[in-house]
Design a protein that fits this description.
The chain is of the alpha+beta class. It has one domain (about 30-185). Helix content is about 15%, strand content about 45%.
């Protein structure tokens, strides 16, 4: 009986170590280019107005925040944020339609990051299971190594991921381009 319990504990410990190792492998180190904000793309964005989302009642007055192509579309905005009491910067590259949102999130913590695509809508189900992703390619360049609320973030992202959804579908995701934004703190 004691041997079974010890074997069970050992097996659970080994499985948890494997899960933790897999989680850490998703987080990659990013590059820093302090002069990325001097790239001509950001100068071009200054002459363009931000895209109007379906949820906007009037056209935005701010300048465009992204030049990103994601899954064959370029209609995205950049919303960088910290959640209260968390030390992870979330850079959301997103398109809101009013009933759904699609895009990808870049989570930055210390000198590491991870990218994951998302798609949410107003349909809620009890038995929805999360998708799993494989990271064949991902690259991130940011203008600084550390950020705090009200800082400006400038960056370049390039990635390709394969999503396996709850229905067994294999969905490729590709994104590439430049983004910028002012970091907000949400409580």
């Amino acid at each position: 009986m004691k041997i079974r319990i010890l074997l069970s504990i050992l097996l659970i410990t080994l499985l948890n170590c494997k899960k933790e190792s897999a989680k850490k492998e998703q987080w990659k180190e990013y590059s820093i280019d302090e002069n990325i904000d001097q790239n001509k793309v950001f100068k071009e964005l200054e002459s363009e107005n931000e895209i109007q989302m379906m949820i906007d009642s009037e056209p935005p007055k701010m300048k465009k925040t992204t030049r990103v192509i994601y899954d064959d579309s370029n209609e995205y905005v950049c919303n960088p944020m910290f959640w209260n009491n968390l030390d992870t910067l979330n850079i959301n590259i997103v398109n809101h339609s009013g009933f759904s949102s699609i895009g990808f999130n870049i989570r930055v913590n210390k000198n590491k990051y991870e990218i994951y695509p998302f798609s949410v809508d107003d349909v809620i189900t009890d038995d929805e299971k999360p998708s799993t992703f494989k990271n064949p390619i991902q690259k991130l360049i940011l203008n600084k190594s550390e950020y705090k609320p009200n800082d400006s973030v400038y960056g370049y992202v390039e990635f390709s991921k394969i999503e396996n959804d709850q229905f067994g579908n294999v969905i490729p995701h590709k994104g590439k381009g430049y983004f910028r934004g002012k970091i907000k703190n949400y409580k």
